[in-house]
Design goal:
This protein has about 500 residues and is α+β, with helices and mostly antiparallel strands. It contains six helices and 21 strands. The two termini are about 30 Å apart.
């Protein structure tokens, strides 16, 4: 029918053209100019005829469309696996770094690496000057011996002082007793001598009195005896053997007493010196503490020197990010030599927005791409405090640990990260573009027995191209893949597979 109308119109237009041609031919033949009014009239007729042809064609097309179902591209709902992911990028950083400090004051012999060099565990990074190292070891050993000798000497001196003090205390107690006993004995001797002399003097006095009584009889025997007794008494007072014995003994005990007192004075001096020189309990504790401190420091210094005999060795595979040591320079104790960052324990630091924060959790698997090479990853840390990014938006720092790093991992480079946040198997899945939304929610167009049906659905997780349908359609349902203008629920359609 359409072709019939089209042929008729075309025929009419050809007739008009023929007529126009005839006019031209006639004009050419007659060689007369065409009237302008007539030319406008002809042009108007042609335009009207064209418009009529278009209207007729449109009416015919609508009639055909009304009598035939509209073809629509459809796809079947399938059952399969779907995975929802978060795609982002971040910076590769290390989880383990170590700054190496010098524990010894020794000249650097050689520096074997530079900042940026990759090293393996066990590599010698820095070597010390062996001659200077050996000299420091000898000094450390001598210092240790000197400390031990000083401590032993202090203990020995203290023990001697304690011995002197103990001796003085014992001797003083004995001397005090001996002096007291000797003084008492001397006092007794002095009393004996004094009494003996007193008795002899008293007896001499009595003899003198008796002699006076007989002086009027100078020739009498009694007088003569009395004179003899007086002379004998005088001699006895001066030369009494008992008194002389006591006096001799008194000299001995006085000398003994003097010796005792002199020795006691020496013991008192020894006691004072020992008490002043001996260690108090606090001083002894301080001595022992100082000795232990010096001994520990000396052993640590010696141990540190022994530990660096083979140089500074890398403890793990990594990259030297700082090098402060200079070959031939003397380093101060405690100064930083270098910094090593591990390439065995690395992560990618990313930022998560508030829209994805509820979807991510520690332990989720991820794929990390660095320089075109993929690595297995895992969400290892989610910060509990947000921070502002360069755009001023609040983001949460998150770390993705690389589970299988190798020598192709570079610290500080950008890495792509795909985090698997959900995965379902055996679910009904359809392309994302097949899902539509209106005021009532999500829906799809389903072709059922040639009729277009608007079917509400409940969606689940989604990937970049597919979405999970948990309610509303079943596997095999034919869905309109491309919703075009003019589709209305209930209209007749013809399903045309999109692929």
């Amino acid at each position: 029918m359409t072709l019939k109308y089209k042929d008729k119109g075309e025929k009419k237009m050809e007739e008009n053209k023929s007529e126009k041609g005839l006019f031209k031919k006639k004009e050419k033949k007659e060689k007369k100019p065409v009237d302008k009014a007539k030319r406008k009239k002809i042009r108007r007729i042609v335009i009207i005829l064209a418009i009529v042809a278009i209207i007729v064609y449109s009416m015919v097309s609508k009639a055909i469309a009304a009598s035939q179902p509209m073809p629509v591209a459809t796809i079947p709902a399938e059952r399969g696996e779907i995975e929802q992911t978060i795609n982002t990028s971040g910076t590769v950083t290390t989880n383990n770094s170590k700054s190496y400090f010098s524990d010894v004051k020794v000249k650097i012999g050689s520096v074997n690496v530079s900042a940026g060099d990759a090293v393996k565990a066990g590599d010698v990074l820095i070597e010390y000057d062996q001659e200077a190292l050996e000299k420091e070891k000898q000094l450390a050993e001598l210092k240790l011996q000197a400390g031990e000798g000083s401590y032993k000497n202090s203990l020995q001196s203290n023990n001697e002082k304690l011995g002197d003090l103990k001796e003085a205390n014992v001797n003083l107690a004995v001397l005090d007793q001996q002096i007291a006993d000797t003084e008492a004995y001397i006092k007794g001797l002095e009393n004996k001598i004094e009494k003996k002399k007193s008795d002899l003097a008293y007896f001499g006095t009595l003899l003198q009195i008796s002699l006076l009584d007989w002086q009027d009889q100078p020739d009498s025997e009694e007088y003569m005896n009395l004179q003899k007794q007086v002379q004998l008494n005088n001699w006895e007072q001066t030369n009494n053997e008992e008194i002389k014995g006591w006096e001799a003994e008194l000299d001995v005990y006085n000398k003994m007493l003097s010796d005792y007192k002199e020795y006691r004075s020496e013991m008192k001096s020894q006691k004072s010196s020992a008490e002043a020189g001996k260690l108090t309990s606090g001083a002894r504790e301080e001595l022992e503490a100082n000795n232990q401190t010096q001994e520990i420091e000396a052993h640590e210094n010696l141990s540190s020197l022994q530990n660096v005999e083979n140089g500074v060795v890398a403890e793990f595979d990594g990259v030297v990010t700082e090098m402060n040591a200079v070959e031939g320079a003397s380093v101060a104790d405690g100064s930083q030599l270098l910094k090593l960052e591990s390439t065995e324990d690395v992560s990618v630091k990313i930022s998560i927005t508030k829209y994805d924060l509820d979807k991510i959790s520690v332990g989720q698997k991820a794929v990390v791409t660095i320089g075109g090479k993929e690595y297995d990853g895992e969400v290892s840390k989610i910060n509990k405090m947000a921070e502002k990014n360069s755009s001023g938006a609040a983001v949460v720092g998150t770390e993705i640990k690389i589970l299988n790093p190798d020598s192709d991992v570079y610290l500080g480079v950008e890495a792509k990260v795909v985090i698997s946040i959900a995965k379902e198997e055996g679910s009904v899945i359809i392309p994302v573009g097949a899902v539509n939304v209106d005021v009532n929610g999500e829906f799809v167009y389903v072709v059922r027995e040639g009729i277009l049906v608007k079917q509400p659905v409940v969606t689940g997780i989604s990937s970049d191209t597919m979405v999970q349908i948990t309610e509303g359609i079943n596997e095999g349902d034919q869905l309109v893949s491309d919703v075009m203008a003019g589709l209305t629920e209930g209209m007749a359609v013809t399903a045309v597979p999109a692929y």
